[in-house]
Amino acid sequence: MHSDEFALILIKPDALERGLDSEIFDGLVAEGLDVTKIGTIQFDLQFVMDFYQWPKIEYPDMMQAYMCVTPLPVWIARGENAVFKGMALKNRLRAKHCDGPMKNLFHCPCSQEESQWQYDLLKERHKPMETPKKRTKNQVEAIVFKILKNGELSFLMLKRIPERGGFWQPVTGNVEEGETFEAAALREVREELGIETIIQLIDTDYSYEFTDNGIDQFERIFGVQIVVDQTVALSSEHSEYVWASMDEALNVYLKYPGNKEGLRRLCEKVKQKGGRQ
């Protein structure tokens, strides 16, 4: 989804203690939302009152022990009907896991306006917290590859989780407002794979247009070379990965013509630079 609507998600201590934060994250992703972990916030009793707009706290000692001991993670879940989907997930997980009114896993505001207001309040208290950036209609595809000792190219293919189609693809993502295509490609590789060391970024000079959920998109394709022994750490968007030859990538894994043509263009660029196919 590429909507500017977002829901602020505050993970509460009982979710952290029970290891349920990953279930919350996966549930939001399964709803088709893009989730960004933007920081943590330390509450005190006064800030609890400000955040929830309460005139007073009925049981301050209990609230102090619950909300004000550990810094709490703050996420932004962005996408169409983000607030509605966040609220629905909150209700489902509370019904599944909670048996009391206080320990209730996570907070999601009831409206977009409340999300924005609470986010602004959190940002004012915690200056380093990132501002949720607006999505654009521009996309990047980053084909991660390595050059083996025999000179052959090996390409990283990622399998999307079933909720996101279950097909194989390279790294893809949205270009954020004010961001270059090149910076977006490198950021997506870091975020989706945990890869920081990049040998080179190659512009394939190939782009194409497509429609996603009724929204026209423009996508540019890059190659990203990494070291041979680089470890890959998948994000929650993907369930598995394989390293494939060019023929395997084109004939077994890649589904869409634009992805296939982008890989062919990358192979041509690498060959021009002295690499092999």
Automatic annotation (TrEMBL):
Keywords assigned: Hydrolase
GO molecular function annotations of the record: hydrolase activity
Gene3D superfamilies: Nucleoside diphosphate kinase-like domain, Nucleoside Triphosphate Pyrophosphohydrolase
Membrane-spanning parts: none
Nudix hydrolase domain location: 138-267
PROSITE patterns hit by this protein: NDPK_LIKE (PS51374), NUDIX (PS51462), NUDIX_BOX (PS00893)
PANTHER family membership: ADP-RIBOSE PYROPHOSPHATASE (PTHR43736), DIHYDRONEOPTERIN TRIPHOSPHATE DIPHOSPHATASE (PTHR43736:SF1)
Homology family: Belongs to the Nudix hydrolase family.
This protein's name: Nudix hydrolase domain-containing protein
Source organism of this protein record: Candidatus Staskawiczbacteria bacterium RIFCSPHIGHO2_12_FULL_38_11
